[in-house]
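Why does residue order matter? Because the sequence determines the fold. Keep that principle in mind as you read this record.
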Amino acid sequence: MRGDLTEGDITKKLLLFALPLMAGNLLQQMYNVADTLIVGRFLGADALAAVGSSYTLMVFLTSILLGLCMGSSAFFSIQFGRKDMERLRTSFALSFLLIGAAALLLNLLSFAGLDWIIRALQVPREVVRLMREYLFCIFFGIPATFLYNYFANLLRAVGDSVTPLLFLGVAAVMNIALDLVFVIVFRWGVAGAAAATVLSQYASGLGILLYYLLRFPELRVARRHIRWDGGIVREIAGLSVLTCVQQSIMNLGILMVQGLVNSFGKVVMAAFAAAVKIDSFAYMPVQDFGNAFSTFIAQNYGAGKAERIRRGIKSAALSAFAFCAAISLAVCALARPLMGLFVDAGDTAIIEAGVGYLRIEGAFYFGIGLLFLLYGFYRAVKMPGMSVVLTVFSLGTRVALAYALSAVPALGVTGIWMSVPIGWALADAVGVLYYYRNRTSILAGG
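Structure:
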């Protein structure tokens, strides 16, 4: 067994555990970024708009499964911190069956509601056919997304953050290679880009499942572990469902903003599609740092080490601030050349719109960095409901202000961009204030 975060130097252990998560999620972003780069360069603005809007939708759908897996992972980490391996195996068996059933249902609903989804997103008429073609293919990858995220979160819960990175690395390289072949050589259009992503997802999902079966006998489930345990189910459901709600609300809000962005036309739609990929790359590492921080907190919460948790909070906040400050400077300074990676230099209107987005968002990345730490903390101490509250504050403000400010003629689409950091700041203030007023009772619950 590996990855005990309840002993040793806090900053060193936290960073060593977090770095593979950061690298892994950056690789995961390459699935859709590879589509966006190749589609934007070789298939044109309509295809770029279709793939970009599809990305926002898939983030929302994936967030449902990811939330369920992350909630279970927090429970696994707490049991690992307590060294209760029998309870860990039983909870693993039960959560796999429950979340697997949810993944199957989500897959069926996605196919059934495809046309309604496209209408709800206010997709321009000239983009509808391409978006439908892309989504129909990409939905076949939902089961693979479940497999990878479930076993990746299980391994991370017990301190192995390297193995998920390795499987993602293979899948990312495979995705780029297949993109080039299917789109440029075979000329399969957006369906080719989707097929490349789906095949790569299955490579990582089935690969990590096989690795778990062969290399982690200490986590392997026996027949005695496949039994109903109401107490475990209630605890897992409380963490998983509320974490799922938090992730879904967060991405549903983004999806609502996507519909508003689409109403400004193809130029803004394409600019947003490209800029969001850059944005995701920029703050994704600190999101993964928040997830690593959550595992650290959960293991120490299970072990009853309140003082180590306090020291870990200070270390994580300082590390996140340093990273976000560096990334903010880089994105603000390089916004134009970064947009040029996705958009032809002749599409100046698209580039200008994307630069405006990046310079507003990029200046305030610590707001989202701190919010990810708060999400991870409250999930780890079995208070996922607080993460939901913070998400409602953040996204509620964002959506309301996006619609209100964009209606001001002097602001227009800039009002949408401005609403985001305001939402981050409000949620941060609520989360930090709640912790300082209740920290003794929160940390005593382990």
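The chain has a mean pLDDT of 87.
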